[in-house]
Design a protein that fits this description.
By secondary structure, the chain is an all-alpha fold. The chain contains 11 helices and 2 strands. A two-stranded antiparallel ribbon has the order 1-2.
């Protein structure tokens, strides 16, 4: 029963974001293309090399990761809040389906959208720079775990949201600044020592650098620390989500 329920929720999520692909898949592709053109071709030629790599080559992993983060998070927060608003989540809660299945059903849909968006951006990037993968296992594992982490984060945002405006607060005022300050466009080694220490308090910088290591073999952060941090956050946010679901917290818009 739980398997059927999980498959049903994930399938519903896939149908939802593929039906409106022009709003879910096309905008990230256009946005990242503009980043490649502006930051890569126009500004990158003036910046020169970054940590021994061409600037375009250096920022590609960060841009891919940024698209995965925003898509995974945005899909789950909008989908679950819509279920709350339409009261359809109440039908799930009274059904003989565990809260784990409900959580990971929504998370699964967000992860698949995030990974597909990342693949689209990667294909676009291949037209601007020759992509080389230093360690494919690190690339796949980091992008998957990061997508799971931010999909769960989107679920929590949706739980606490009371109105549609609340859905946009975290992405606008927290997620976007942390992403742009997460080493996507620069190496933290360029910063003064104090700001390097401050930057290391940003969890996204670990994910971006671990992903960059998978492509280039270079990172400002220890790869082991990045994996441990991601896994700790996944366990913590998952536990919090299940706890809130069990209590019924935030299930009414």
């Amino acid at each position: 029963m739980n398997y059927v329920a999980f498959k049903t929720i994930v399938t519903k999520e896939i149908i939802r974001w593929t039906r409106i692909w022009s709003q879910t898949l096309l905008p990230p592709a256009i946005t990242m293309t503009l980043y490649f053109v502006i930051f890569g071709n126009l500004i990158g030629s003036r910046v020169g090399e970054m940590d021994g790599f061409g600037y375009m080559e250096y920022i590609v992993p960060g841009l891919i990761m940024m698209s995965v983060i925003t898509s995974s998070y945005g899909n789950v927060v909008s989908s679950f809040f819509s279920a709350k608003y339409q009261r359809s989540i109440e039908e799930m809660m009274v059904s003989p389906v565990s809260n784990w299945v409900i959580l990971f059903g929504f998370v699964g849909g967000g992860v698949l959208r995030g990974l597909l968006t990342g693949l689209i951006v990667t294909i676009i990037a291949s037209f601007f720079v020759e992509l080389k993968v230093y360690n494919p296992y690190v690339v796949v594992s980091v992008v998957f775990l990061t997508s799971v982490l931010f999909a769960i984060g989107g679920f929590l945002n949706a739980l606490f949201a009371r109105k549609f405006d609340d859905v946009a607060i975290v992405p606008t005022f927290i997620l976007t600044p942390l992403t742009y300050l997460g080493g996507v466009f620069y190496s933290i080694s360029l910063l003064p020592e104090f700001w390097q220490a401050v930057s290391k308090a940003n969890p996204i910088i670990y994910m971006v650098n671990a992903f960059r290591y998978g492509f280039l073999g270079a990172s400002d952060i220890g790869i082991e620390i990045a994996f441990i941090l991601i896994l700790v956050f996944i366990v913590a946010l998952t536990s919090l989500s299940i706890y809130l679901l069990n209590r019924g917290t935030g299930l009414r818009a």
